[in-house]
Every structure is written in C-alpha cells, then in structure tokens.
Amino acid sequence: MIKGAFTRQWKKMIMIALTVALGTSLATAMLNVMMDVSDKVNQELKTYGANITVVPKSASVMDSLYEIENGADDGAYLKESELGNIKTIFWAFNIVDFAPFIDTKATVSADSGEKEITLVGTWFDHHLELPTGETLNTGVRSLRTWWDISEGDWLSEQTYTGTEKPCMVGEGIAKTLSVKSGDIITVSTTHGSERLYVAGIFSSGDTADDEIYASLDTVQALSDKDGLLSSIEVSALTTPDNELAIKAAKDPGSLTIAQYETWYCTAYVSSICYQIQEVITDSVASPVRQVADSEGAILEKTHLLMVLITILSLVGSALGITNLVTASVMERSSEIGLLKAIGAKNGAVSALVLTEVMITGIVGAVIGYFAGFGFAQIIGQTVFGSSIEMKLFVIPIVAVLVIAVVLAGSLPAIRMLLRLRPAEVLHGR
Amino acid sequence: MSLLQLKNISKIYGELKALDDISLEVENGEWLAIMGPSGSGKSTLMNIIGCMDKPSLGEVILDGRDIAKESDKGLTEIRRDKIGLIFQQFHLVNYLTAVENVMVAQYYHSMPDEKEALEALERVGLKDRAKHLPSQLSGGEQQRVCIARALINHPEIVLADEPTGNLDEANENIVIDIFKQLHKEGTTLIVVTHDPEVGEVAQRMIVLDHGRIKENTINKNFGNT
After folding, report:
1. DSSP-assigned letter for residue A239
2. How far apart are the C-alpha atoms of B175 and B201, rounded to whole Å?
3. What sign results for the dihedral spanned by CA atoms B67, B70, B73, B74?
4. Tell me, what's the pLDDT at A71?
5. Packing angle between helix A394-419 and helix A346-379, nearest 10 degrees?
6. For A219-228, what is the mean pLDDT?
7. How far, in Å, CA of A427 to CA of B188, rounded?
8. What's the whole-number mean pLDDT along residues A48-69?
9. Residue A393: strand, helix, or coil
10. Which residues in chain A touch residue B89, judged by CB atoms under 8 angstroms apart?
11. Which residues make beta-bridge pairs with A196?
12. Cα separation of the two ends of chain A
C-alpha cells in the first residue's frame, strides 16, 4: 500500500520531500557553518594579534599592584629554553603562533643624530624545533599582521645573509633620525653596542612606532640576558567563556573534579593560560581581555544568529509539512474512512500516514543534507574565503531535527485523522 | 438465537429522530432488504448495523455482543471480523490495483494473500482485471471489486448500501446474481436499497418511513425469480 502510495502519488510526495529538503538544507548549512564558524572567526580575529600574554610571576604581581605593564623587572625573567613547551600542552594544536620578547633601553646612532629608544628583541619568522619532534615557523610577522611596512620588507631570520645583524625600525624613529631601509644604524647599551642593518620601516599605530625590533639573540646579548625573556605573546584558538570558565579563571581550585576535567579539556582561554603556566616556570599567563572578549562576543552573536536561522527554517519546514500532510489527509479522507471501516485501527492508519511522510521526509532530508552542505560551502567561500569542513556529528543532529519536524508537522493531520469517523466520510453523516 | 438483534433502537440528532424505536431480528443466512425513501433512516440504520455508529437508545446485539456498549476500538474489531461492507460509491483506493484493493482488507484482518485475493476476484468474474487500477475499471467492475473485498475475510454479515445505485441494468443483474450465489452459500445479506427490483429479490424486506419500520414482509416468491 505504501509502495502504491509512492509510485502513484509521487507528485504529492515530491512536494513533501522538497519541503523537508528545503528545511534540511538550511539547517545543515547553518549547523555546518555554525560548527566551523568558531575556527573561522577565531582565525579572522587572530589578525588582531595575540590573545594571551605570558610574563614572569613577580612582574605580574607588580602589574597587578601598580596597574602597569612593565613585563619583567630586573630580577625575573622567563627561560627561552622552555618556549617550545608551549606546543606540548593539552591544547597544543590551538596554539597558532607565539613570540618571545625581551626589551632594553638603548641609544641609537644614525647619520643624522642619536636617540634614546626601547630596543625589543623577538622572533620574526623563527624556525622552531619542538620537543615533540615537530617544527614550527612563528614570530611577530604572524602576530603583528597589522604592521604596515612602509619601506623595505619584513625581516626574515631564515633568509637574511648580511654581515650586520638585521632590525626593523618604527616609523617614528625613522622620521626623527631620517633612517631608511638599507641603512646601517648603531645601537648601544650599557653592555655593548651593535651595528644593525635596517631591513624595513614599519608603522604600527601604537608605541612600537618609537621602538626598534631586532632578533632575540641580538637584544639578549646587548642586555646581557642570554637565554632570558621578559614576556611571551601567544595567539590561541579559544572557546568563548561560560560560567565554568569564569569560575575557573578566578580559582581553578574551587572546581569539582568533574568540572575541572571539563574545563581543562575545553579550549577556554583560561584553561589554555593555566596549561601554559604549567609548562613555563614561574610564569603568569593571562588573556588579553579585549581580544578574548571580542572573540567570545562575536562568536556568541554569530552562533545565536545561526541558531535562529536554523530554528526558523525548521519551523517553516514544519508548517509546510503541516499544510501538505493535512491537505493530503483531507483529500484522502474517503480512503482513510474506508480503511477504518474495513477494520484498520487508529494506530494502524496513523502509522500508515506517518510511514509515508517519514519515508518521504528521509528522502528529502538526504537531498537537503547534501544541498545544505553545498550552501555551507558557498557561505564559507563568500564570507570566509575558505571551505567549510563537513562535520559528521551534524548528520545525527539533522536526522533528529528532521524526525522532530516531520512528526510535529504531521501532528495536526494525525489529530484530524483520529477524529475522522468512517460513517461521516463514507455516507456523509 | 438471531445473528443480529435490534431492540428498540433510536438515533437522535438534536431534535431529529433519524431512527425511532426500531426493533428487528436477522437470522443467520437470511437475505434482508431495507428499503425506504430518502431521509427514511436507511443509511443511519446501516451505519448502526455496520458498527460505524451507535444508537442513541436501545440495544444492538450482534453475535451476542451489544455494540452500543462497545468502544471505538471494539467496534473496529467487530467490523473487521464480522462485517463485509459494500458501498454505492465503491470506495476503492484509487492508487491500488483491483487485487491490492482486496488485499487491503486482508491486511487489516490477518495476512495479505494474493492467491486468495485473486480467487475472490475470480468469484466475481474479475480475475483478468486484477492488475487494473480502479480508474481502468467500469462502474460494475469496481462494484464487483468492492464485493470481493467485502467477502475476502469471510464475514458473518455482508452489508450493502445501495449496491446497484450507480450501475446500469446489466451490471445490476450481475451484482444480484452474485448476491443470490452468496445467499446459497449461507452468507447473511443485508441490502439497503431504494430500488424495488433489488429489494424484491431478497428473502425479506422491511420498509422504513420517518425512522420507523412501516412494512416488514416476507418474499413469498423468494427463490423463484
């Protein structure tokens, strides 16, 4: 009978299948994008720099007491040898980039004069051999994507072959001392002096415009801080904070064992900070709240939007199914009345109609799933310029939603069917 | 004991008495015709006998069970097990073939058996049209499919509502001949009709008027026509 209904009523079934397909495609597209959008938005927000800073514990205490951001004081430094440990934490794959920093006061001399400046040592595009055996290229080139190189180019540690050590000069200093890319400048500290080749002039729009950036080992030598760091900036993919994350950020010791495990195994910024502190001796890792909060807020709003679109598309689909199935039941009232008259119980007739609609719904859902995945790719390419990864766990979610929508959409028709009395439809009474 | 007993039944819709204190007994194997003009209560009576409705007052005892006290589920079971229904409008499922229409009744009764369904169609002379859709059958052929469907589960009562109402004379005669054959085989037949030719071939005829039995006559010529 069901086979007959499908083979000879295929036009009606196609309409129901298309309605389900439409709802499913939108739900699939939105769910796939929603599941992937965290990574996409996170990647987009990484262009705004690091979201975690790591400083020595004593420097952090000073910061907290005096609300200043000095990085390390004279007595407390991080160890360069522990840098690679950052990529060994539980959420190692979420660590996108990081760069160490050490700074010192110096005097820069150029042809046009001298100036007291801050000399910052860091990695630009450092090739790192990790303790895990993996390799990584990281540094400020990835973390300071907003720097505008007005002259020359980014300093490349890996390809630079000159005799003088290279540096990048902030636009403010470059203007004051009339320094151009390709010039040689001399920087002097209490521990020595060094001739530096100006690889590029950058504009950052912040205090870095009045600083000179050189390679880490150069500044460590000039400040007599071999193997030491004043801070580390880390860019990590994080999950928006919730109540658990906020509670844990205040005091991880206040969590129950189950809460602790959940928190530790979720990529909250506080969890990643905690794990970084575990692998960097005497350090305090803290989120750059402006970036982390922006990420969370944007993600939450994006998720909310996607959820709303998903719900609306499914509600629309359910309403469409309601209309189609109710119309079908009304049209077939004589047939349904006959089935009841010849002995079909309400359950059997309901099961017949539901089976027809469910099979049609499944066909529509399969079509809708693949169409929805196609829509997701269009959204991914249009909005983020990259493809959306197929999330397998979207399939059971969509399956459950389709079943719920088909059942909900069929309910009014089933109620009508249950009230239908054979005598009324067969004899008009 | 009679197969069917109606004891002082009434069916009241608001202020209208569609059936008014009707009492009737139908014996096993009897062929009864229920006649009367439009609005006399024929269809209401058929709905009650066919367990598709309950009387407002009175008792309907079918094979020892009072259908007035049965639940909807119980009435469905009685219809399924004891009654074969034949309709004026045939009420065939339009997307199922003739044999599938017969098998639908088997499906809700026990198990579909195509061989048995084909035998039922052969009995009404339609075996060669078994794979045709209702739209490919004439009115008479559709009615014969409807009869085959009514007979497939070997009901105790075959209840026909204006079975020849939509048929030409030739097909009417075919249907009457089938009824005669069924009666010979011992099937209890209750035929609701306003057609005197159909009523007069029955063993007994009652005439309804304004919800009451106006006449209850035994056909003295039964078997001679």
Report:
1. B
2. 12
3. negative
4. 47
5. 150
6. 91
7. 22
8. 68
9. coil
10. 334, 426
11. A165, A185
12. 27
This complex has an ipTM of 0.88
- Residue of chain A whose alpha carbon sits nearest to that of B133: A8
Tell me how far apart the alpha carbons of residues B142 and B181 are, in angstroms, rounded to a whole number. Answer: 19
Phi, psi of A389 (to 5 degrees): -75, 140
Q: Is the CB of residue A236 less than 8 Å from the CB of residue A143?
A: no
Kindly report whether the global pTM for this prediction surpasses the value 0.90: no
Residue B98: is its pLDDT beyond 90?
yes
State the amino acid at position A246 in one-letter form: I
- Number of CB pairs < 8 Å for A and B? 74
Q: Is A335 on the interface with B (CB under 8 A)?
A: yes
A333 by Cβ neighbours in 10 Å (0-12 / 13-18 / 19+) ranks as middle
Query: Hey, what's the torsion of the CAs at B137, B139, B141, B145, to 10 degrees?
Result: 100
Mean pLDDT along residues B35-56: 90
Rounded to whole angstroms, how far apart are CA atoms A217 and A102? 9
Percent of residues, chain B, with pLDDT higher than 90: 55
pLDDT level of residue B137 (50, 70, 90 thresholds): very high
| DSSP state for residue B135 in the 8-state scheme | G
DSSP state of B56: S
Sign of CA dihedral A179, A181, A183, A188: positive
Token readout for A353 is 């109609």
Which pLDDT does position A6 carry in this prediction? Answer: 64
- The yes-or-no verdict on residue A114 having pLDDT over 50 is yes
pLDDT tens digits, A342-353: 889 989 989 988
Place of tokens 């085959």: B148
Residue of A289 and A321 predicted with greater confidence: A321
Minimal CA separation from B149 to chain A, in Å: 9
Tokens 């006061």 sit on residue? A105
Rounded-to-integer distance, Cα A139 and Cα B124, Å: 91
B52 interfaces chain A, CB cutoff of 8 Å? yes
Q: Is B184 helix (H, G, I), strand (E, B) or coil?
A: helix
Any idea what DSSP says for residue A391? -
Which among A1, A5, A341 has the least Cβ separation from residue B79?
A341
Torsions phi, psi of A269, nearest 5?
A: -65, -35
